[in-house]
Amino acid sequence: MFKTLAVTVAVLVAALLAYATTRPDTFRIERTASIKAPPDKVFAYLNNFPKWSAWSPWEKLDPELKRTMSGPAAGKGSIYEWEGNGKAGKGRMEIIESTPASRLVIKLDFQKPFEAHNTAEFTLKPVGDSTVVNWAMFGPNLYVAKLMSVFFSMDRMVGGDFEKGLATLKAESER
């Protein structure tokens, strides 16, 4: 009886581990919002890391969050490093591409609670008297993330934070 149970569990675990290898090698999460403000006003909140405290959903996870900013005040080469509690974690962002009022690309390196190296991209498109903002994050989907994706949807977890951030960015930009 015990031997049959042990073999069954081992087969199920092996099947789960094998199934995880079939998951995609990359991931992409994105959300879009329409903001009734000109692109340059919205872009100013994105292109300047000190302004992230006004809208970023992660800024409020830890009241004791330690922030270090270096490089230019805004735009390409601007760097934001943070270290906080378990929810906020530890990491670094660097603006690697900044096209005024239209596109921003950020190299995003997480160190804690897990290591990951991704890219965040904001694109802004004027539509009438509004700006359509698309926020995307993409990168490699390593084996551990593939295994986790069998049980949890990263799109639902992180996508919800993107939705909160875009809603706050909208409120700030429309003032």
Structure description:
The protein is α+β, with helices and mostly antiparallel strands. The protein is built from 4 helices and 7 strands.
Multimeric state: single chain
Can you count the beta strands?
A: 7
Give the neighbour order of strands across the main sheet: 1-7-6-5-4-3-2
What radius of gyration results from the CA coordinates? 19 Å
Would you identify the regions where 5 or more consecutive residues have pLDDT less than 50? Answer: none
The biggest sheet, with number of strands, parallel, antiparallel or mixed sense and barrel status, is: 7 strands, antiparallel
- SS summary, helix count: 4
Tell me, briefly, the overall form: elongated
**Estimated share of beta-strand residues:** 35-45%
SSE arrangement, N to C: HEHEEEEEEHH
Q: What is the mean pLDDT?
A: 89
Spatial separation of the terminal alpha carbons: 68 Å
Structural class estimated from helices and strands: alpha+beta
Relative helix content: 25-40%
